[in-house]
């Protein structure tokens, strides 16, 4: 089923369905969907004709589901003479509340506890269960973040529930099957509440309670009995609150825990029912944050000043797990975090005002497991004080992030390039923690629109980000200004009136288009089209009589390598050139979306606007022989990749000039956030594949591989976040886990290995690897909506290139065999080999 299915929280009455066929399956020409709902007899819907050949994001063929319904769905497909496939394994569903009246629980907040300076509160209550219970579901949300237990056992494995959304307009809830946690009689429920994003410090100003000053719990139980009864109960004024052993918690600052207070809750206090509109409650669309991996410590070392340091060998996001023993009550253990060491000491300067420190006051000598519950950190190294005899086996790191399914892999003959790709993967894992953040470690961690705009294509190859980014786009639309302006961070916590920053606000158009192209979901595109249009219309309201957009502050080609440390927006590329290029691109993206949605008149309107903006670009910024204003790598990359040039002379001249600039730079990168995703493609378009490879494999700074040679395990914010002498770049914008420059991985997948989507959902792909270069082999695998597609090529000892392509059922591949001058060869499902 589609992204709306999640842990008992199906949030749509008409979910879309997708399935994959087994290898070797004949073409599909029909299907049946069987639903067994709420104990009723199974019902089957058959679909034939053209629609019967679809298998990705197909429409719900039954009557709409109702809130509280549960059951299973399974599919079988018809393959003509080959007959019917076996039925798929049944998929369980449980429909979440779909309307305000479906909620009986209220938000309860401690009346006298849980203030900004108070310990984290625990809200407690009970649920009475009668005989004959056959099923139970808990719907859980909070103002803040929550960890719940039933009868002392933790509910679920999610972290930082309910995550971060535009809380005043969209507040997510999670659903859990808790049948096995309940028993007949009275069941005790307790929920630890933390500040999280709702009330904790946010932004470099450390602003607290941006959304509200009171923490609150929402818990609704749905109890189903053998006789068919359904009982719904939840948080109300009868619940109570205690202070907890967590004395302070903050996402930036860390957590202070006094284990001497564990179990010493004191007298319970009353709660208040808050007036929260249930219409803001929304079901999840993607997986929640969880511990996705636990890394053992790689080594323990001493700093020059004598500090105990733990190296986990990998820059990651999460927290440190410690096992301690033999300490006296009241002994304090402190864990500080950082991504790098600077001259052997913990390099905390890039954290700015984020303290990233967890502190534990111990209860006594018994062996104790230490880990925070209400915070996270970005780190590779931890400094531990209070434990002088720390053993490597007593330390591990919990890796935390949205529990996304991995879908893309890349290998090649150059180990440094493989490490770069691995760094991109780890950067994605760390920054995709409920929202796509820019960085996970310092006093920021915000959903910057520009970063995900340039990185979305790479992300959608590496992981299944359909639901994750779909949810974030809902927040973008919710926080979008009435005039169409898009905040530069989503959720919008900066609340800045400057909302027309090119390349940042363009996430409103670019990200929905990426998701449609990669996952084939027209519903998402239709849902986001008003937001897309509003952004583009806002831009056109700024256009002058020459059809040029030249107003407003711009970030430009952010972090161009020539920018001084104290001015990240200072770039070689003229910001007006970038503005106009994005005006063209976003306008034509709206036109493409309108075409895909069957709106030809609207598509024509925006196509005409895009042509007007393109002509204005050429007239104002391009010479007849293809010189582009500001004459740097980024402006040529934009012009070539986005077809912004007119005559053949302009295209040829721009390509030649780009090649000159790259040679003059000794194939080092001279682009920032805007130009980096496009520069290698632009060189290939210009017929300079040799220069593209030279730049890709360059190890001198600035280059993608320079950080790899410096030991990086994630992508850096600056090309030289760490200087060659081992000192940290003095610039304020210095992060060691920033995925934007890792957008180059898209080029590795599409061009180096050679797998590129052509039709939405990968229904048709192009296989055209760049084998004329220094690499001797490359391979890529992608788990598409139709199944796994694999491409690999290798240069044989005799110079012949062998190309292997594996295509799943339902996909057509256009293959350009190596060494063959003729056009593409079209192949369907199966394993195919070419050589030349």
Automatic annotation (TrEMBL):
Ranges for domain Alpha-L-rhamnosidase C-terminal: 754-825
Occurrences of domain Alpha-L-rhamnosidase concanavalin-like (ranges): 303-400
Recorded catalytic activity of this chain's protein: Hydrolysis of terminal non-reducing alpha-L-rhamnose residues in alpha-L-rhamnosides
Stored Gene3D superfamilies: 1.50.10.10, Galactose-binding domain-like (2.60.120.260), Immunoglobulins (2.60.40.10), Maltose phosphorylase, domain 3 (2.60.420.10)
Alphabetical list of InterPro entries matching this protein: 6-hairpin_glycosidase_sf, 6hp_glycosidase-like_sf, Alpha_rhamnosid, Bac_rhamnosid6H, Bac_rhamnosid_C, Bac_rhamnosid_N, Ig-like_fold, Rhamnosid_concanavalin
EC number: 3.2.1.40
Record-annotated Bacterial alpha-L-rhamnosidase N-terminal domain positions: 136-261
Name this polypeptide is given: alpha-L-rhamnosidase
Taxonomic path: Bacteria, Bacillati, Actinomycetota, Actinomycetes, Micrococcales
């Amino acid at each position: 089923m589609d992204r709306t299915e999640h842990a008992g929280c199906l949030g749509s009455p008409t979910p879309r369905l997708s399935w994959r066929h087994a290898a070797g399956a004949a073409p599909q020409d029909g299907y049946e969907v069987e639903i067994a709902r709420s104990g009723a007899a199974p019902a089957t819907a058959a679909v034939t004709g053209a629609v019967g050949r679809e298998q990705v994001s197909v429409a719900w063929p039954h009557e709409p589901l109702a809130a509280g319904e549960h059951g299973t769905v399974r599919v079988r497909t018809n393959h003509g003479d080959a007959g019917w496939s076996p039925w798929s394994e049944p998929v369980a569903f449980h429909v979440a509340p779909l309307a305000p009246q479906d909620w009986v629980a209220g938000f309860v907040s401690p009346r006298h506890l849980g203030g900004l300076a108070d310990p984290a509160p625990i809200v407690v209550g009970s649920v009475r269960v009668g005989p004959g219970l056959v099923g139970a579901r808990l719907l859980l949300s909070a103002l803040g973040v929550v960890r719940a237990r039933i009868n002392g056992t933790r509910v679920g494995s999610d972290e930082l529930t309910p995550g971060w959304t535009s809380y005043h307009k969209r507040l997510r809830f999670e659903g859990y099957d808790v049948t096995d946690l309940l028993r007949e009689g009275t069941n005790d429920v307790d929920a630890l509440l933390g500040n999280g994003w709702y009330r904790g410090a946010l932004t470099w100003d450390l602003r607290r309670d941006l959304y509200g000053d009171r923490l609150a719990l929402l818990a609704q139980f749905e109890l189903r009995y053998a006789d068919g009864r359904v009982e719904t109960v939840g948080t109300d004024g009868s619940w109570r609150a205690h202070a907890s052993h967590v004395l302070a918690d903050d996402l930036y600052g860390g957590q202070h825990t006094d284990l001497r207070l564990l179990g010493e809750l004191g007298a319970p206090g009353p709660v208040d029912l808050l007036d929260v509109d249930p219409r803001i409650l929304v079901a999840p669309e993607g997986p929640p944050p969880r511990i996705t991996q636990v890394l053992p410590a790689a080594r323990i070392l001493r700093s020059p000043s004598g500090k105990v340091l733990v190296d986990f060998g990998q820059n990651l996001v999460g927290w440190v797990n410690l096992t301690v023993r033999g300490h006296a009550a009241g002994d304090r253990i402190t864990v500080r975090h950082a991504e790098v060491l600077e001259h052997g000491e913990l390099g905390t300067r890039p954290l700015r005002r984020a303290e990233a420190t967890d502190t534990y006051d111990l209860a006594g000598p018994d062996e104790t497991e230490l880990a925070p519950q209400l915070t996270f950190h970005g780190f590779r190294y931890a400094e531990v004080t209070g434990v002088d005899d720390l053993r490597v086996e007593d330390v591990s790191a919990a890796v935390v992030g949205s529990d996304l399914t991995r879908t893309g892999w890349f290998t090649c003959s150059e180990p440094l390039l493989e490490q770069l790709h691995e760094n991109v993967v780890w950067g994605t894992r760390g920054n995709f923690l409920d929202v796509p953040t820019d960085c996970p470690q310092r006093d920021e961690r915000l959903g910057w629109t520009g970063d995900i705009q340039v990185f979305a294509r790479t992300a959608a190859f590496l992981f299944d980000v359909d639901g994750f980014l779909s949810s974030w786009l809902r927040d973008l639309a919710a926080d979008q200004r009435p005039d169409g302006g898009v905040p530069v961070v989503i959720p919008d916590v900066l609340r800045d009136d400057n909302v027309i920053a090119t390349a940042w606000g363009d996430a409103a158009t670019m990200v929905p288009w990426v998701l449609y192209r990669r996952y084939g979901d027209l519903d998402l595109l239709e849902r986001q089209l008003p937001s897309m249009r509003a952004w583009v219309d806002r831009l056109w309201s700024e256009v002058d009589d020459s059809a040029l957009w030249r107003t407003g502050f711009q970030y430009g080609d952010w972090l161009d390598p020539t920018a001084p440390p104290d001015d990240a927006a200072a770039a070689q590329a003229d910001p007006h050139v970038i503005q106009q290029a994005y005006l063209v691109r976003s306008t034509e993206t709206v036109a493409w979306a309108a075409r895909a949605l069957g709106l030809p008149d609207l598509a024509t309107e925006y196509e005409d606007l895009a042509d007007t903006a393109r002509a204005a670009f050429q007239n104002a910024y391009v010479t007849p022989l293809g010189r582009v204003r500001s004459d740097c790598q980024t402006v040529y990359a934009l012009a070539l990749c986005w077809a912004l040039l007119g005559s053949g002379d302009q295209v040829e001249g721009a390509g030649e000039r780009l090649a000159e600039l790259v040679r003059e730079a000794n194939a080092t990168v001279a682009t920032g956030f805007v130009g980096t995703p496009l520069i290698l493609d632009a060189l290939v378009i210009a017929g300079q594949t040799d220069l593209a490879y030279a730049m890709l494999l360059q190890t001198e700074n600035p280059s993608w591989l320079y950080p790899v040679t410096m030991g990086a395990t994630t992508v850096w914010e600056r090309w030289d976040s760490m200087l060659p002498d081992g000192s940290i770049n003095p610039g304020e914008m210095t992060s060691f886990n920033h995925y934007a420059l890792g957008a180059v991985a898209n080029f590795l997948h599409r061009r180096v290995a050679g797998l590129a989507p052509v039709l939405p959902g990968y229904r048709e792909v192009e296989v055209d690897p760049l084998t004329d270069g220094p690499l001797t082999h490359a391979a890529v695998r992608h788990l598409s909506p139709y199944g796994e597609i694999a491409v690999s090529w290798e240069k044989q000892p005799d110079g012949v290139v062998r190309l292997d392509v594996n295509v799943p059922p339902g996909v057509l591949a256009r293959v350009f065999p190596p060494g063959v001058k003729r056009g593409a060869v079209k192949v369907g499902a199966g394993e195919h080999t070419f050589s030349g």
